Amino acid sequence: MKAKDALGRQGEDVAASYLADQGFTVLERNWRCEQGEIDLVGVDGRDTVFVEVKTRSSTAFGHPFEAITDAKLARLRRLAIAWCDAQRGPRPGVIRIDAVSVLIREGGVPFVEHLRGVFR
Amino acid sequence: MIGTTTAVALLGLTGQMVEVEADITPGLPSFTIIGLPDTALSNARERVRHATSNAGCPLPARRITVNLSPAALPKFGPVFDLAIAMALLAAARSISAESIGRVVHLGELGLDGRLRPTSGILPAVAAAARLGFTRFMVPTGNADEAALVPGITVIPVASVRDAAIFHGSSLQPQPVEPILLARESATETPVLELADVVGNRDATQALVVAAAGGHHLFMLGPPGAGKTMLAARLPGLLPDLGALESLEVSSLRSLSGEVVGSQLITRPPLESPHHTATAAALVGGGSRQIRPGAAARASHGVLFIDEAPEFNSSVLDALRQPIETGVISIHRANAVASFPATFQLVLAANPCPCGQYGARDSECTCTPHARRRYLGRISGPLMDRIDIQLRVQRITAAELRMADGAERLDTATARATVIEARARSASRLAKTPWRVNSQVPGSWLRTGPRRLHRATTASLDRALERGGLTMRGYDRVLRLAWTVADLDAVESPTAEHVGRALYLRKSLQS
Question: What CATH code would you report for B194-409?
Answer without folding.
Answer: 3.40.50.300
